[in-house]
Amino acid sequence: MSKIIAIVGLGSCGIAAGAGKIFDKLNLFAESKKYDVLVKKTSCIGMCYREPLVEIIDKFGKYLYGGVDENILEEILEQHTKKQSPLNKYVVHSELLKTKDDVFWEGQIKIALRHCGYIDPESIEEYEKYDGYKALRKIADKNISRDDVIKEILDSGLRGRGGGGFLTGLKWKFAKAEVSDVKYIICNADEGDPGAFMDKNLLEGDPHSIIEGMIIGAYAIGASVGIVYCRAEYPLAIVRINIALEQARKNGYLGKNIMNIKGFDLDIYVKEGAGAFVCGEETALMSSIEGKRGMPRKRPPYPAVSGLWKEPTNINNVETYSNVSWIINKGAVAYSKYGTEKSKGTKAFSLTGKINHGGLIEVPMGISIHDIVFKLGGGIQDGKKFKAVQLGGPSGGCIPAHLDNTIVDYDSVNATGAIMGSGGIVVMDETTCMVDIARFFLDFTQKESCGKCTFCRVGTKRMLEILTRITEGEGKDGDIETLETLSYQIKDGSLCGLGQTAPNPVLTTIKYFREEYEAHINDKRCPAGSCTKLLSYEIIPDLCTGCRICAINCPSSAIDGAKKEIHFIRQSDCISCGICVIKCNFDAIKVY
Amino acid sequence: MEKILKKYKHASRDNLIPILQEVQDKEGFLSEKMLVKIGKHLKLPVSKIYGVATFYNQFRFQPKGKYHIQVCRGTACHVLGSASVMQELKKILKIKNDETTRDGLFSLEIVACIGACGLAPVIAINGEFHAKVSSESIKKIIKNLKK
Ligand SMILES: Cc1cc2nc3c(=O)[nH]c(=O)nc-3n(C[C@H](O)[C@H](O)[C@H](O)COP(=O)(O)O)c2cc1C
Ligand code: SF4
Ligand code: FES
User: Fold this and answer.
1) For a 10 Å CB count at each end of chain A, is N or C smaller?
2) Which residue out of B122, B129, B130, B132 has the highest number of ligand 3 atoms within 8 Å of its CB and is therefore the one to mutate?
3) Separation between Cα atoms, residue A110 and residue A114, nearest integer Å
4) Are A8 and A41 in contact (CB under 8 A)?
5) Looking at the domain assignment, is residue A107 inside a domain?
6) What pLDDT is stored for residue A494 in this prediction?
7) Is the CB of residue A4 less than 8 Å from the CB of residue A37?
């Protein structure tokens, strides 16, 4: 028998799919010496659609296995230890053989996510082995000045990945220019877009790269206190970043006179958010750290001038920081080689919804939506028709299928009315109702509005009421126009980004799918067949077996018929709930 | 509770949220009594504390059930049918969001994306994820828990 290494992907998606059990089982095998295997763990490699994932390394190379359960695991171990060959049918990725999942990897360039799924996130040694803290060491050894660090980041063209897209180097320059005894550096790990998980994967998968980026940023601007503001909904991320901080302190990357740079003192700690979307906005975030209600305030003054506790503060997103050490190591030129003229480098996206290959990807800026959906993403689930993608979450908008040649960079996406956002891409097919999606986002922003501005607070509520009416078949003439007017009023009358962008999902769906709104309002019909209240149901006599299951389950007792006889829905009593469709085992219910 | 307050002996305003989080972690929820105590400790009016606690979604004012069910309302889960899962749960448990069943067995909470969107729709029961749930599978899950 020959020794093999088994690495289990223990990100939260892996754990949700049962990777914990696989990990325990492997450890049992190793302890009992049933198989000669060294067990390690890593985080999510991005192939969420194939979880649980186990990578096996034998003397020939590496094989990534997908959809592993306990039985398959034994089969794989048998094969590798006894026959010294891979079990090809379960391999989803390997440099040694071709798999049908290879398309998922083609076109991906991993910079921010370079370590995710490859190293053990709870081991600083592994991070160090893969160029970890090398950038910081380079700065110390070569005596690179603070201005030169800033210049390198500026030259790379790196723009903030939290959604705003502001040049990171420029932000640092402003913060450095302020004179003050104390400055703060903050990492925005509040990842508010529901349906996006890039930052979570980075925090869980490579916490040291974020810390190293923050240390370099602190050096550049002259900060002595760092704070990672992390969502409470990410318990695993919080655990891992705390472990990493402790290790960094022990190894002298945090503390006093860091790397023997005289006077460079820094400590970083974690602050847990408490579940408010608006706290992702930078001024609200700082007010939340101060222990207050997380309400945005007017800018200027910008955080660089007056931020946390009124001191100069630099705030960047998780992904922004994780790019920093790579840029210092490899140089601005290497980074700006990727991307388009005004959007340099790569961007991580979480790809979800009605897509075959849902997961986490990192691609160079400038790739088209079409390539993301149909090449990497493997197309639409169940062979359905592609309808639109949603970019930028509650602040963003929908890009329809006919514009799928749109390339992803800040300017091209903005031109469609959507925004790049933080990197959530939700794919929708012909069965997704666009009015319902607009309603969904408005429901979200309406609940999350902090209430400070009247237009944001009341306006979103009015819009939600109208949208709800439309999806329930109570739409009226003029509703679309009212929605548009309200949208522009909210945009103009709101203080922070939440209100200013809240109408985007409505405006883009009206712009590209106006006929869908009209069908709901004028014909009381939902073209996607999704708004249950607008659907009618009828039993197809030829298929009905008279099993009575629909009649028993109908909450409104609207279905008549004796056992073994053809049933009938009394339309006057039908409340269009759709339960009969779910219940019927013979597809005997027609929806129209 | 006393222990937590002791830990934050010289606490200032910015400790308020961490204290609320730790107390809720220990006790499962925040009662009026607890808020009053925290107020005394931090020398802040209870109304201020209540204002902060109600602002954030994380804090609850009712005890959790033995099984605390969190339903994701994120976009990915919505597109793949989380609304019908929620509806089914409300129906079988006969409670609404943020409520607890009379027998104290189940409580229900809607949460923003829990970051497992690749496996949507997702729910978490006492922190353990259940992937790709449907209004059908949820019935079985609840039935098994009732046993
Ligand atoms: C309502 C709202 C929510 C936001 N949520 C986030 C978030 O979750 N994560 C984030 O990094 N930035 C978020 N931002 C953007 C931040 O205000 C800020 O621009 C960003 O953290 C700056 O970092 P960057 O320059 O590295 O992008 C949000 C902004 C608004 C208006
Ligand atoms: S725009 Fe909305 S969320 Fe932003 S400050 Fe105004 S009310 Fe609050
Ligand atoms: S949308 Fe439900 S887990 Fe992200």
Assistant:
1) C
2) B122
3) 5
4) yes
5) no
6) 95
7) yes
Judged by CB atoms closer than 8 Å, whether chains meet at B55 and A233 is answered as no
Give the 3-state DSSP-derived string for chain B, with helices as H, strands as E and coil as C.
Answer: CHHHHHHCCCCCHHHHHHHHHHHHHHHCCCCHHHHHHHHHHHCCCHHHHHHHHHHCCCCCCCCCCCEEEEEECCHHHHHCCHHHHHHHHHHHHCCCCCCECCCCCEEEEEECCCCCHHHCCCEEECCEEECCCCHHHHHHHHHHHHC
Task: Closest CB to A432: pick one of B17, B21, B79.
Answer: B79
What are the structure tokens assigned to B106, written together? 């189940």
- Terminal Cα distance for chain B, rounded: 33
Strand-pair category, A568-569 with B67-72 = unpaired
Global ipTM: 0.85
For residues A174 and A319, membership in a common domain is answered with yes
Shared-domain flag, residues A144 and A245: yes
Residue A116 lies in a domain: no
A125-137, pLDDT tens digit by residue? Answer: 999 999 999 999 9
- Residue spans of the domains in chain B: they are 2-55, 67-146
**Considering chain B, what percentage of its residues have pLDDT values greater than 70?**
100
Pick the range with the lowest mean pLDDT from A39-53, A325-339, A572-586: A572-586
Suggest the residue from A21, A184, A197 to mutate for an interface test with chain B (most B CBs closer than 10 A).
Answer: A197
User: Do A269 and A239 sit in the same domain of this protein?
Assistant: yes
Q: Are strands A559-560 and A313-317 parallel, antiparallel or unpaired?
A: unpaired
Nearest CA in chain A to B20: A274
pLDDT at residue A533 in the model: 82
pLDDT tens digits, residue range B89-110? 988 898 888 889 989 999 999 8
CATH of B67-146 given 3.30.230.70, 3.40.30.10, 3.90.79.10, 3.40.50.1820: 3.40.30.10
Q: What is the pLDDT of residues B122-133, one digit of tens each?
A: 999 998 888 889
Across A388-412, average pLDDT: 94
* Strand pairing class (A568-569; A559-560): antiparallel
Is A369 found in the same domain as A225? no
Question: A238: Cβ–Cβ under 8 A, 6 or more apart, which residues?
Answer: A230, A232, A270, A272
Q: Is residue A287 part of a domain?
A: yes
Q: Exposed, middle or buried, A191 (CB in 10 Å: 0-12/13-18/19+)?
A: buried
Q: What is the pLDDT of residue A2?
A: 57
CATH number, domain with residue A284? 3.40.50.11540
**Beta pairing partners, A342:** none
Into how many domains does chain A fold? Answer: 5
State which residues form the domain around A352. 346-429
Which has more pLDDT, A534 or A157?
A157
Nearest Cα residue in chain A from B113: A194
Rounded Cα distance between A239 and A254, Å, is 18
- Nearest ligand, measured from the Cα of A353: 3
Ligand at shortest distance from the CA of A454:
2
